[in-house]
Task: inverse folding
């Protein structure tokens, strides 16, 4: 019997037994729907987390070097770090490590008083080299960014975040105005575009940037850095750069084994992945459960097919009498099982995609459908139909036509 | 031509004891004959028909169909013989219930591996007097109509041999007579018909009668006179 005819026959049988067909499809449909929904919502959440993380750190394509051998916790600042990381270390990394495109320097502190006339606010203070803002994708809403000349001349200029503008300049244009940081006067050179909230929900806009040289010599009077940011030439392969920087800094700091590093290197992409991986472990467990549910759907198909084979003994006998071979009967039942399972898979995918979009919209996420997973779920449902249909089909094929016709 | 030589069939009962259904059967049925196999139930007549119909294989002996020894054929080969050279008509019709008359008639062509000839199926239904019933589901047809659908199905692949097993057993006498008239007509067209029955009246339609008793052919006699009378009638 030609394959096309077998498929048409199977479809006709399924169509004429709607209740049985729906029951058979149900398990696989629910399993595949859960699988599709879970992986899609999981992926959407993961992308959202990564996007928030990237928004906070500005760029993923860097290695950050902070002082202390992993002993400091949280964001480094001048008051919490050890004074081990020097300006000369940054210069050496820029000049001697081949995988590094450029190096930015940071000297930062938190809760620094900033005043304009009678207005006062406390913000994060970042002394930075001129390339830092571009490297971290900051843009000005008004005025200009910090330039290399500003660094060179230890200029007393500041680029302020939107929160600082709101607190100090509720009704006027800040650019060109003089503010006081500590007791040092600075001229506002630019106002940054808003970056919104970070992953923790706190504002990323309550911040003031000044030239790192000015910070070091005129404001804080400290000669060590809180962070060195090394931009990678090849963002996909940070490991050789991490190793090169580590050995260079150990040499410069005179550390020999078994002495431990007095600095810590981190790659924001790896860190972000770690955060989102914790969430995706949960997704994986749930998806595994959904896959098992799909398998259970397969056993439902098997059970109902076995019942159907018993009920359809006479039909099998008739088909055998008019010339169906054992193989014809085997194929007929196998195709029926695979088709019903595949149809269940299709229904499941439709439901799952619908649910995923609905949930994403409800949770203000960008809907993501993981099509490879959807494809795999469909293949899985066909495979389940074939595997769980095999035993009933085999039983059908082995029915003795004489017995079947007599019954 | 059907040639049967020293055919034996032994079954294993459920408890393992062997049952000899056919002891030693030999006979020749020529092309175009109308033969009944008659006997009480349990005499082995159904077993003989199952072997002739290639649904079963003999334990010993030879069965040649048109000169071809089919007794050692595989399942696939026997399926092919059933499909193309034999048409079955059963006591309980054995039609597919949730299917239309036309679809039932088409069934043998489906397993022939050719595209289904729906027009031919409809023509055969018209031939057995069911032109206006062709799209009805089987459950909507009377017993006599169902058996006529079965006859149309048996003719679908133009087999030279028709095997009928108590074809009138489930029918009232009027429908039974219609069916027998149809079989007589098909025989007149040159088909070989082997009819299994316990009913002497039905057996009387045939030219020749094989009486089975205890797994053997007890008598093999021609019935020319009666046949002639029926044909004339």
Result:
């Amino acid at each position: 019997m030609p394959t096309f005819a077998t498929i048409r026959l199977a479809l006709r049988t399924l169509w004429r037994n709607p209740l049985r067909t729906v029951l058979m499809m149900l398990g696989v449909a629910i399993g595949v729907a859960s699988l599709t929904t879970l992986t899609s919502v999981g992926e959407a959440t993961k992308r959202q987390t990564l996007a928030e993380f990237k928004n906070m750190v500005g760029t993923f394509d860097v290695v950050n070097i902070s002082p202390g051998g992993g002993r400091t916790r949280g964001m480094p600042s001048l008051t919490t770090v050890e004074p081990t990381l020097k300006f000369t270390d940054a210069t050496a990394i820029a000049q001697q490590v081949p995988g590094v495109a450029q190096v930015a320097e940071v000297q930062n502190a938190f809760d620094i008083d900033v005043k304009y006339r009678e207005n006062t606010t406390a913000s994060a203070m970042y002394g930075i080299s001129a390339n830092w803002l571009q490297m971290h994708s900051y843009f000005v809403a008004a005025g200009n960014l910090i330039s290399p000349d500003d660094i060179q001349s230890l200029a007393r200029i500041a680029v302020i975040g939107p929160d600082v503008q709101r607190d100090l300049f509720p009704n006027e244009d800040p650019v060109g105005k003089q503010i006081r940081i500590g007791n040092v006067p600075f001229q506002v050179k630019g106002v940054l575009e808003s970056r919104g909230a970070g992953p923790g929900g706190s504002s990323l806009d309550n911040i003031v940037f000044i030239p790192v040289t000015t910070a070091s010599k005129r404001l804080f009077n400290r000669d060590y850095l809180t962070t060195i940011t090394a931009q990678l030439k090849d963002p996909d392969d940070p490991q050789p750069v991490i190793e090169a920087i580590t050995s260079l800094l150990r040499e410069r700091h005179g550390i020999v084994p078994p002495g431990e590093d007095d600095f810590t290197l981190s790659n924001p992409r790896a860190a972000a992945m770690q955060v989102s991986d914790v969430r995706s472990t949960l997704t994986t467990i749930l998806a595994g459960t959904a896959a098992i549910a799909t398998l259970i759907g397969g056993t439902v198909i098997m059970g109902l097919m076995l019942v159907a084979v018993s009920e359809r003994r006479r039909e099998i006998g008739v088909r055998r009498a008019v010339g169906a071979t054992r193989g014809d009967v085997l194929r007929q039942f196998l195709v029926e099982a695979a088709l019903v399972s595949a149809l269940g898979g299709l229904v499941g995918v439709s439901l799952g995609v619908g649910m995923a979009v609905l949930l994403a919209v409800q949770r203000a996420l960008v809907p993501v459908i993981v099509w490879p997973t959807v494809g795999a779920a469909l293949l899985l449902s066909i495979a389940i139909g074939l595997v769980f249909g095999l035993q009933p089909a085999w039983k059908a094929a082995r029915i003795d036509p004489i017995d079947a016709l007599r019954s | 031509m059907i040639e049967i030589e020293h055919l034996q069939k032994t079954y294993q009962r459920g408890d393992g004891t062997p049952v000899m259904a056919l002891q030693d059967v030999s006979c020749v049925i020529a092309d175009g004959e109308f033969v009944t196999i008659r006997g009480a139930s349990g005499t082995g007549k159904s077993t003989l028909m199952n072997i002739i119909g290639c649904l079963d294989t003999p334990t010993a002996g030879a069965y040649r169909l048109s000169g071809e020894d089919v007794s050692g054929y595989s399942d696939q080969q026997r399926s092919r013989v059933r499909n193309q050279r034999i048409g079955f008509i059963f006591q309980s019709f054995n039609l597919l219930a949730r299917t239309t008359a036309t679809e039932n008639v088409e069934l043998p062509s489906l397993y022939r591996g050719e595209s289904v000839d729906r027009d031919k199926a409809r023509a055969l239904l018209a031939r057995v007097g069911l032109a206006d019933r062709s799209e009805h589901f089987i459950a909507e047809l009377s017993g006599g109509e169902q058996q006529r659908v079965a006859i149309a199905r048996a003719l679908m692949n133009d087999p030279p041999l028709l095997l009928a097993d108590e074809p009138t057993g489930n029918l009232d006498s009027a429908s039974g007579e219609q069916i027998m008239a149809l079989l007589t007509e098909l025989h007149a067209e040159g088909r070989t018909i082997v009819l299994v029955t316990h009913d002497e009246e039905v057996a009387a339609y045939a030219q020749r009668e094989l009486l089975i008793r205890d797994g053997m052919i007890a008598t093999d006699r021609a019935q020319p006179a009666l046949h002639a009378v029926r044909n004339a009638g």
In short: The longest strand of chain B covers residues 18-29. The beta strands of chain B are 2-12, 18-29, 34-38, 60-65, 68-69, 86-89, 161-165, 192-197, 208-213, 216-222. Chain B has one domain: 2-232. The longest helix of chain B spans residues 173-188.
